[in-house]
Amino acid sequence: MYRAILPEGQIECDRYDHVENGVELYDEDGTFIAFIPYANLHALADERLYTESTSEGERSIM
């Protein structure tokens, strides 16, 4: 699971594809969710960043 981080919020997806001017997001069934232009995409993060901790304790990703 991934999260597309945008200025307005976040969109969760199961997979993504890089295309010429941005990324296309898809759910677990392969259904298209959204197209995000690179100019609007702050980050594309693996869901594990939000759910796993390190041996040093929790880390902030913001």
Provide a descriptive summary of the structure in words:
- This protein has one helix spanning 48-51, and strands at residues 2-6, 9-13, 15-19, 22-26, 32-37, 43-46.
- By secondary structure, the protein is mainly β.
- It has one domain.
- It has a 3-stranded antiparallel β-sheet with strand order 2-1-6. It has a 3-stranded antiparallel β-sheet with strand order 3-4-5, with no helix packed on it.
- The relative contact order is 0.26.
Count of domains: 1
The share of residues in extended strands comes to over 45%
Count of separate DSSP helical elements: 1
Distance between the termini: 18 Å
Q: What is the N-to-C order of secondary-structure elements (H for helix, E for strand)?
A: EEEEEEH
Described by strand count, sense and barrel closure, the largest sheet is: 3 strands, antiparallel
- Overall pLDDT level: 86
Q: How would you write the strand order of the largest sheet? A: 2-1-6
Apparent shape = globular
**Share of helix among residues?**
under 10%
Q: Tell how many strands the DSSP assignment holds.
A: 6
**Oligomerization status of the protein chains:** single chain
Rg is 13 Å
Helix/strand class: mainly beta
Catalogue the unreliable spans.
none
